[in-house]
């Protein structure tokens, strides 16, 4: 019997590729879940609006659960574990994460799962970052760059669709092609797992604190 799992899902490229690899490995993925800033209905870190994540879940044929919490307080870990506990009660045994190579992040995820008696899985773990970036676009996934840290990467990449050419251009600047150190974030809108493409409506581009540029999408 296939292992029942949920995926920690930001709507970006890494968690999507983790979902893809998990399905290829035979996991029975039941649901997606994300943490949300209740004040603005946007996901923590990536800043993707809840409505967009719902559309992505619909296109993937997977329900997406929203955990309203505060990333900057101890409540974040507590709320995260409460959500995981509901999955354990429902017969799910494994939580899938899209982390690549930051040991501290992995350990945090493992601890949340251990506290409620679930197993954690990391399908992308210790895979070369460049390999992952190319695998993502070669598989046919399409994602939009929605956040750029201009301290690490030119703002010209904001609002672009990831492709081999875009990845090579990012690498040519000296930035991490995979964006693993926060150079950029993405939102997925099409690919081999999708029942249909997600229509993203582009809004205004904004400059936030500390040199971050954001492409609003709905």
From TrEMBL:
Its EC number is 6.3.1.14. It is an enzyme of class 6 (ligase). It comes from the Bacteria. Residues 4-208 form the Diphthamide synthase domain. SUPFAM superfamilies: Adenine nucleotide alpha hydrolases-like. GO terms for biological process: protein histidyl modification to diphthamide. It holds the Pfam family Diphthami_syn_2. InterPro entries: Diphthami_syn_dom, DPH6/MJ0570, Rossmann-like_a/b/a_fold. The keyword Ligase applies. GO terms for molecular function: diphthine-ammonia ligase activity. Keywords: Ligase. PANTHER family: DIPHTHINE--AMMONIA LIGASE, DOMAIN OF UNKNOWN FUNCTION 71 DUF71 -CONTAINING PROTEIN. This is Diphthine--ammonia ligase. It comes from Weissella confusa.
């Amino acid at each position: 019997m296939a292992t029942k799992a949920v995926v920690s899902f930001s709507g970006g490229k890494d968690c999507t590729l983790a979902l893809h690899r998990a399905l290829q490995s035979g996991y029975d993925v039941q649901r997606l879940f994300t943490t949300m800033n209740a004040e603005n209905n946007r996901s923590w870190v990536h800043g993707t609006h809840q409505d967009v994540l719902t559309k992505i879940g619909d296109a993937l044929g997977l329900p997406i659960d929203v955990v309203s919490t505060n990333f900057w307080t101890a409540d974040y870990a507590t709320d995260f574990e409460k959500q995981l506990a509901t999955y354990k009660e429902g017969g799910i045994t494994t939580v899938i994460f899209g982390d690549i190579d930051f040991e501290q992040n992995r350990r945090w995820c493992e601890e949340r799962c251990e506290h409620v008696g679930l197993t954690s899985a990391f399908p992308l773990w210790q895979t070369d970052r460049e390999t992952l970036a190319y695998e993502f676009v070669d598989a046919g996934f399409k994602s939009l760059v929605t956040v750029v840290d201009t301290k690490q990467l030119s703002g010209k990449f904001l609002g672009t669709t990831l492709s081999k050419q875009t990845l090579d251009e990012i690498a040519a600047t000296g930035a991490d092609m995979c964006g693993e150190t926060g150079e950029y974030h993405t939102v997925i809108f099409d690919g081999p797992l999708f029942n249909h493409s997600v229509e993203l409506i582009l809004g205004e581009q904004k400059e936030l604190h500390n040199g971050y540029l954001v492409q609003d999408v709905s």
